[in-house]
Please model this.
Amino acid sequence: MADAGDEAPQLTCKFVTKLPEEFRVPQAALPFDFLINGELLRGTIQQQLASQGASVEVVTEIEYLPLQLPPTPGPSVPQDDWIASLVATGSAGGAYYSGSYDRCVRTVEGGEVVRTFQAGPKPVKALVRVPGLGLVTGDGDGRVALWSPEAVAGAEAPATRAATLQAGGEEVAALAFSPVSGLVAAGGWAKGIRLWASEAVERAQEAAAEAPEVSKKRRGTKGAAADAVVETEVETQAVLTGHSGAVSALDWTAEGRLLSGSWDHSARLWDAATESQLDSFSLGKVVYAVACAQEGPDLLAVAGADLAIRLWDPRASGEEAAPLRLRGHQHWVAGLAWHPERAHLLASVSLDGTACLWDARAAIPLHTLNPTSGKLLALAWSGDELAVGGEGKQVHTFTL
Model:
């Protein structure tokens, strides 16, 4: 009988299977994240359970899910001035409109600028795409205008406005469109939030297109004809009042409610149909950015001059109504954007020059991106691609 301490023969084995690909163990390791009672694990399991007040008499379920890996840097597209606003064009493959301090709108596609046109006499501070109608711009001169899809495409013809929503006034700082209500919202230094129905915008667009050619021209100082547009404003459906400071940010919820942020230190939730305020939330400092989750929980993100990003659930009450604070930026937060399809995934940009990716179930960022040494002012998602821009005069892209 062999001694128990003797070594057994060493054999080489290899596991194989004839199962379909989806049931096979992958060749490369799969990194996972872990979720405990609705919160991502950050630290040890013991620390997290203690912070949650878990009971030893209850079995705690720990859910594992794929880890969100760092995004891959893509092309950086140079422009001529600071970038104040970004919005996806809606086309596949990652394409964006950028609004700039040089008064121009640019179409960025395939890693290059394919179209540039001047949108007004002042910096283009806000952009929003209205599917089927075109691009709406808001500038420092108070003008809110619609440009047809042809005007912002990679065409050589001069761009002309398809309709004018607001011919001038106080600076426009924010625009938002709701596919649910069909409303375009604009806010800025006038403090009120103006609303227009997309049907009215479409009628004005058609009227401008059908106007006699002579009415689309104005005479120059020496009698030369100059390009112009019929300056008939689209009828305003409503003006929401309540903010005592400039309205700096707007976004619509998936249900068609409007979220606004202001220099009066508040974020407010509105029912546009009844023109009434539903709720409000005070940050104590200027609000520069708001964003409404379109997938998953009905979360509202609010941020500004106090550095932290607050996640606010308008359905919660009591202690649950206290917002979750996300901390990671070292300067004012200038922009927020939820991923269009991935629940819980939020992006932010800051004057500290960084962009952060967040999971709403954790208070610290998933990843911090450093594309530039200058301030970041704008961001937009196009599918799984994130574009950011600002003082560095470039549109930087990252792909999940």
